[in-house]
Design a protein that fits this description.
Blueprint: E1 2-8, H1 14-25, E2 33-38, H2 40-52, H3 55-62, E3 75-77, H4 92-110, E4 115-120, H5 126-139, E5 145-151, E6 170-172, E7 178-180, E8 186-190, H6 202-207, H7 213-222, E9 229-233, E10 238-241, E11 244-247, H8 250-263, E12 270-272, H9 281-290, H10 297-304, H11 308-312, H12 324-341, H13 344-350, E13 352-357, E14 360-365, H14 366-369, E15 373-377
Helix pairs in contact: 4-5, 8-9, 8-12, 12-13
């Protein structure tokens, strides 16, 4: 199994060499590859100290360590939602990007079964360390570990200190003093963490590559809440549940709203029976909702054989009855979207149910059965 080091760094790239030294000192497996998560503004400090000044190579030579690779492509710059590196992580939106990016990278590494990850939270901003630790708790496996590294006070925040040298090396310390690197003490503290991966639904884990950190947390939290609310925004064509936006087409959103009306009716469902395709009632009801936010020709003209303008003006001579396959296929597409972004326990609360009862099929929103409050924004 290949050992790798995953580390977050900020303005103190020394934590990387300190961590490598401490791993060697404690006889831990040394990483073959190093992955660094940092920002655009601090990458220059990292590469200057480790490569230009050569502190990484010096550490490897001084302690005769095995080859340790830190490729430029393994220095990951935190990106915004458009894939552009952020300069720092000071603003609220940049903190969001940082959380999403770290979770995504931990997801990518932990999806490789043949590597063992040692994650260090010693560097970077406090929130960087928190997000890395939390992502490891969500996704970490038995072979993965988490740690922090400490140095004694006189060497802490000393910019020229990178690791305790096996020979005398005097550098400038704090407050005009001088210190000898040979006297430095570095301590690696392994951090026990709860590995939640086995208790998290596999669908949610699979979605972590594209879902945001906040969405992931909301999904986990909401799954155990007693009271949940579903927001339906007809104009934006979204379902929002447990902090997650599920994007629908206008056709799908109108269908969901239409079924909501039937779910709240006396029958508590849309009942599709033998004579379903013999009345214009269902086409008229559905298109009335659809036309409020869309005039999609693929629905009006191709599915129901009517122009949007004619339907609006009450000219329904060409209007086709709704077919059973339209109900089945639209339900299936909506449920697929819901299940892609929500864990099973949450998806089951808002998906569209289908129950065969004799020669009829009953379609309804599961939200009604689960007492989910539905707020509709037109």
């Amino acid at each position: 199994m290949k050992n790798v080091l995953l580390i977050v760094t900020g303005a103190s790239p020394q934590v990387l060499t300190e961590t490598l030294f401490a791993l060697h000192l404690q006889g831990k497996p040394m990483p073959e590859d190093v992955f660094v998560i940092t920002t655009k503004s601090t990458k220059a400090m990292l590469t200057y100290g480790l490569f230009t000044q050569g502190h990484l190579a010096k550490l490897i030579a001084d302690y005769e360590l095995p080859a340790i690779s830190l490729k430029d492509e393994n220095i990951w710059l935190i990106e915004d939602d458009k894939g552009q590196p952020i300069n720092d992580a000071k603003s609220e939106i940049e903190q969001t990007y940082m959380a999403d990016f770290i979770t995504r990278k931990v997801f990518e590494l932990t999806n490789q079964p043949n590597i063992s990850i040692h994650a260090s939270i010693a560097g970077g901003r406090k929130t960087m360390a928190f997000y890395l630790g939390y992502a490891m708790s969500l996704l970490g496996r038995e072979q993965d570990s988490l740690s922090h590294v400490f140095v004694n006070d006189e060497f802490e925040f000393v910019k020229d200190f990178y690791y305790p040298t096996p020979y005398s090396q005097v550098i400038n310390g704090k407050n005009g003093t001088q210190v000898d690197c040979i006297n430095a003490e570095v301590t690696l503290a392994e951090i026990p963490f709860v590995r939640m991966r086995q208790s998290i639904d596999e669908t949610l884990i699979a979605n972590m590559q594209s879902a945001s950190f906040s969405q992931t947390v909301a999904s986990l939290n909401a799954a155990h809440k007693k009271e949940l609310t579903l927001e339906v925004n007809a104009k934006a064509k979204t379902l929002t549940f447990a902090g997650i936006d599920i994007k629908l087409t206008a056709k799908e959103c109108a269908f969901y709203l239409w079924l909501n009306q039937y779910s709240q009716s006396e029958q508590a469902a849309l009942i599709v029976g033998r004579d379903f395709e013999e009345t214009l009632r269902y086409s008229t009801e559905y298109l009335t909702l659809l036309q409020q936010n869309s005039s999609d020709l693929r629905v009006f003209r191709d599915t129901f054989a009517i122009e949007p303008e004619d339907f609006r003006d009450g000219l329904h001579s060409t209007l086709k009855c709704m077919e059973k396959t339209f109900v089945q296929q639209t339900r299936s597409r909506i449920n697929n979207k819901i299940n892609k972004v929500l864990p099973n326990e949450l998806a089951s609360k808002i998906e569209i149910s289908s129950n065969k009862q004799g020669i009829t099929t009953h379609y309804a929103l599961s939200a009604q059965k689960h007492n989910i409050k539905i707020n509709i924004t037109a």
